[in-house]
Amino acid sequence: MKNPLRNTIRELRAARSMTQQELAELISVTRQTVNAIEGDKYSPSLEVAFRIAHVFGVPLEQVFQYSPPRSRAK
Amino acid sequence: MSRLSFQEKMLWAQLLGIGVVVVFYGRYLVHAGPGHHYFHALLLLLLFLFGSVRLIARRRSGNVVEDERDHSIASIGARWSNVILWLGIALILVLYWDHGSMHSAHFVIGILFHLLVLAGSVRIIRELVAYRMSA
């Protein structure tokens, strides 16, 4: 099933010249988890999502966007 | 930079260890006479050594070695492992009811031990698949 959660972590990181490892250390997860979140392969907990937004100093909705799956035609 | 996390490396090491012992068991010990089935002791020793190495590696590592993704994947592995264990126990009970006896304590211990090895292997493989799927 396609993950309805999208994120802009890669762009936010690139704008700050931050590596995945650096971000991982700041939010207390592994680099592999940051990679999985960036690739929309893993949806983080609310706490980690807030930590990411806090690190970048932006609101949560600027980091994560939810696009609900399209319902079937009636 | 390694593509594999600490947890994944440990899982591969566990799988390799179990694989080596099982191959060794199948190749050399399955046809051995009574008194030579030291497979159980060998496997226990291997698990003990592995546990010690893992503990030391964890303590030495200053990096994050476990996070919420690791925990969620571990719970998936535990769920699969539990299913195998429950099925195995159900099978033992069916055998008991079918035969009316369990032959001997050695027979029961043998079944339980192989069941634990199977459940452990399934847990490891399921966790590795989960890591690759969310990598």
Outline the biggest β-sheet of chain A.
2 strands, antiparallel
The total strand number of chain B stands at 0
> What is the general shape of chain B?
globular
CATH architecture descriptor name of chain A:
Orthogonal Bundle
Strand order of the largest sheet of chain A: 1-2
- Could you name the CATH homologous superfamily of chain A? lambda repressor-like DNA-binding domains
Keywords:
A: 74 residues; mainly alpha; 434 Repressor (Amino-terminal Domain); two-stranded antiparallel sheet; 5 helices; globular; B: 135 residues; 79% helix
What does this structure look like?
- The complex is a heterodimer of chains A (74) and B (135).
- With 74 residues, chain A is mainly alpha-helical.
- Chain A has one domain (5-62): Orthogonal Bundle (434 Repressor (Amino-terminal Domain)).
- Helix content of chain A is 51%, strand content 8%.
- Chain A is built from five helices and two strands; from the N terminus they run βαααααβ.
- In chain A, α2 packs across α3 (31-38).
- The radius of gyration of chain A is 13 Å and the shape is globular.
- Chain B has 135 residues and is mostly helical.
- Chain B has one domain (6-133).
- In chain B, 79% of the residues lie in helices and 0% in strands.
- In chain B, α1 (6-29) runs antiparallel to α2.
- The model of chain B has no long low-confidence stretch (mean pLDDT 79).
- Chain A binds chain B through residues 21, 24-25, 28-33, 35-36, 41-42, 44-45, 48, and chain B through 1, 3-6, 8, 63-70, 131, 133-135.
